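Response to reviewer comment R2.3. The reviewers asked that we include at least one raw input/output pair. We reproduce the pair for Cystathionine gamma-lyase here without editing.
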Amino acid sequence: MSDSQNARAASLSHLHSGSLAKGDPLSTPIVMSSVFHLPGDPAGARQYGRFDNPTWEAVEAALAHLEDADAIAFPSGMAAISSVFLALLSGGDRVLLPSDGYYTPRVLLEKHLIRLGIRYDTRPTASFLEGGFAGYRMVLVETPSNPGLDVCDIRAVAEAAHAAGAIVVADNTTMTPYGQRPLDLGVDIVLAADTKAPNGHSDVLFGHVASRNGEMIETIREWRKLAGVIPGPFEAWLVLRGLETLELRFDRMCTSAEIIAARLADHPAIRSVRYPGLAGDPSHALSKTQMLRFGSLIGLTLGSEEQAEAFIDTCPLIEATTSFGGVHTSAERRARWGDDVAEGFVRLSVGCEPTETLWQAIDAALKTA
Ligand SMILES: Cc1ncc(COP(=O)(O)O)c(C=O)c1O
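Raw output as returned:
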């Protein structure tokens, strides 16, 4: 990691200590209160639990520190995405989405936002720049895309989309601020499902939006307050605790993924591997220019649906779950959700287990699958 990333990681756990009075708890308290003591003029104080909460403020301060931008917390990744759409788009606007990214934003637009007159188009991540951005009010990139792990050039998209007058949003869920920094590459808004690696323990859903554009932040924050898409204080506290070890966990996960992806690429049971860190991957050259790490997700294709399911079921160190980014390694066949991938395609989310022990378990399961 660069010195600035190291400094950011090191100071994260000490953010709160500057405001402590003698005798205060070092751990941030969970404040479970829907109302606050509010006599007289309500201005300048916390007023009501849909407007403010000290535990959100703490997690937002940590997220803001990581993103180097203002941050707003949400109760899930989709709450963050839908809030960006609903707060910033109007009837008649067009949005461009990746055709190979997380599918739920497309379904949301197709089933609901279309009724409000918001239209959308999709385009593959690998050729996202082709066709330009004229006519779009918003452009959403997700790179590497989930689950195919294709990559687009964030800086080039931001420049071209801005020239066409669009707001540029990056879903950075697969990378976290330690793996990729889309705001530094020119996008207006970064958002993520903190449900994944930022929380990391598979026990909470959460999301955030971050931006250096004060007007956009105020609009989205007001949207959250009016629409009531607020996180619970306990969830905020869990994510805050998760963030304190994110750098450590993500480092182990990415290092293991790099080693395991290279071994999978040579494995006789595997037809193909996608991982941005592999020298032979179609996205490698671009990934090196914009990613700080290559991530913890590997896409591997086995010969058939049966082989893929047997691999997942046989390996004692792989949890058969959807989602990714947990401390435990997990995997799933994405075709079961209708993603446009081969039946034998498995998205492997590499966890924090010791690397060689994990590899031995994966290798043994592949031999019997
Ligand atoms: C890339 C990406 N963005 C957003 C989301 C939505 O997050 P959540 O499930 O917390 O709503 C997901 C969930 O899998 C995702 O993979």
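The domain at 1-242 is CATH 3.40.640.10 (Aspartate Aminotransferase; domain 2). The first helix runs from residue 3 to 12. Further pairs are available on request from the corresponding author.
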